[in-house]
Amino acid sequence: MACTSCSTGKDGQPKGCKNNGTCGTDGCNKLTVFDWLSNMSLPNGEEPFNFVEVRFKNGRKHFFRNSENLSLSMGDVVATEASPGHDVGMVSLAGELVRVQMKKKKVAPDSDEVLKVYRKASQRDIDVWQEARDREDKMKVRAREIAIRLNLQMKISDIEFQGDASKATFYYTADDRVDFRQLIKEFAREFNTRIEMRQIGLRQEASRLGGIGSCGRELCCSTWLTDFRSVSTSAARYQQLSLNPQKLAGQCGKLKCCLNYELDTYLEALKSFPRTDTKLYTKKGTAVCQKIDIFQGVLWYAYEGEWMNWHKLTAEQANKIIASNKKKEPVGSLEEYEVVLQLEENKKPDFNNVVGQDSLTRFDNPKASTGKRRNKKRKKRKGKPSKNA
């Protein structure tokens, strides 16, 4: 991580800013944008685009109108319009790249949803904002205690204060509909502020809380992943993975997002394979596909009634047999193709196991002593004085 609060200490221990991708120093933020148009000047007579993108806590981003023509750049802390009061955020993007982003996200510049920037945040605004953020952790613990006391089936995952500390948004997850009318009354009485409850999904909760995945790295959703695409069990089937929910599910309880990363490569490789439900008809009998290996490009078939004997074929050989079956041409047996495959494999040089490093028993047998070692031992014995001398 790049920011000073996330770097390691003198003893090598990680400090950790514990902001889960929303670091205030903007060095380890997953939503940091590189403005590749910053060094380009506008054509003569072209006015700069008077909109900016402002980032808030928990990955929340909105577009704002710079109606006051303030000189804003990336990293500036600004006070923006909110309902009610004002909010405090950091400018994440400015200039012509904002026009591209608004067009991509289909946000009209003349829309009523686009609010305006009031001013650059003063020291007073920043102090109030920081004091409000320091209260969030204590409030979250107290809010969970109140929800448990009221027997509500919900989990409060995070709290976000508005920049002027006039409103607090409680993010929660729940499986069913929750009646939190009494909860809001107690929250308003306990915390003395306006309360807004916002339900989020389990994936969004995992991205806010962060954590370590089964791969040993930080969760993708809390470090760099900004959009959540749907993941289905068919992605695991295409990659020949066992449909074990405990292994395929992430910390959010849903299927891991990384199942989609290599899916396109597998689908491209499977185009050269025949369908696994296609049977091969030979003179010896009918063969059914038992297993495929996408990396090696081979399939294993077994005759009906001889399920213990598998025969290894390449995808090209299997397609050739299927084409012969469609033309009703006779096919002898799978053994004929398997022998040809074995001959081809024997001709290929083995570069993987040159010095026998793949053998598990290479250290079991002790090495025989050479003649040099024997001669050294004999010389040592001759040089030692006898006990009788």
TrEMBL record:
PANTHER family: PROTEIN PSP1. Residues 351-389 are annotated as: Disordered. Residues 370-389 have a biased composition (Basic residues). Pfam families: PSP1. Residues 115-200 form the PSP1 C-terminal domain. It comes from the Bacteria. This is Regulatory iron-sulfur-containing complex subunit RicT. InterPro entries: PSP1-like, PSP1_C.
